[in-house]
Each structure stands twice: as C-alpha cells, then as structure tokens.
Amino acid sequence: MFKTPALMLMAALPMAALADDITLSCQGQGWVAATQTHTVQRFHAGKPGHFQPEVVTFQTRRNFKGTGSVEIKAGAARMRVPDAMVPVLMSGGTEGWYPIEDLTMADAEITGVVRVGLLSQPKLRIDRMTGKLSLSGGAGDYAADCGAGDAGPQPKF
Hints:
single chain; 8-stranded antiparallel β-barrel; mainly beta; elongated
C-alpha cells in the first residue's frame, strides 16, 4: 500500500506524535524539603538544676506557590520549574530551563523526567484532558493547572 519508508512510518505513528509544538504556562503549589535549626535548653544530667543550650536541626517541609513552564518543540522538551524547587547547588539547567528526558506524548497525557540536577530528577505528568500537571520526586512535589501560554518572560521592548 505505502511505497516509501517515510509514509509507512507516518502511518504507524499515532496522531499525538505528529502534533504541533506545545508551550504551557502553569500556576500551582507544592512543597520542598527544608531544614530548620532551633536552640533548645536541655537538662544537664551532671549538674542538678542546670540547663544547657543545644542546637537542634531537623528536616521539615516548606510549602510554596509558583509558576512553571513547559515547552515541547520538534520532539525536544524542557521545563522551567518553580524557583522553590531549584536546588541550592543547581546543575543541568540552561537559563532556568531544565531538559525533560524520556518524553512520552500520548493523546491523554504527556510524561517524562525533568533533569533538575544530579540528585533531583522529578517525574512529570501532564493530563492533556484537564491541564493538570504533577511534578514529583527529587526534593519535593508540585501540582499545577496549565494552559497554552508564554514560555517565559518576554521583553517589553
């Protein structure tokens, strides 16, 4: 039926794979891992009635609200994650954008892994029917509502 390999390949691909470029702007909220340090007064067992200051550090969660962007062009994808999710020792990004690897685009969802840093590679899922985005793993979670939009700040002039 098809005479050229290109036409056979196009017939075998789902329509989602041939879709237009996508740019999404996402507003949402999430949490990131954080540490807190407090000074407490501890009872000193060796001296009755004597308290001694001690510094205690523990892990906690910090909630945040933020904006993210997703851009998919010609099969390559990248994401601008909310600032709160960028590690202090960030790596892997270019001008605030981080690559999305293992990209899968289906009719109902888009999935992949955002390489924010060596130790932070959260999983991305975008429901194409509802516009809901979830980014989980690494050092936190983020959930957002997305719509077609700008990929980031544009100069006014």
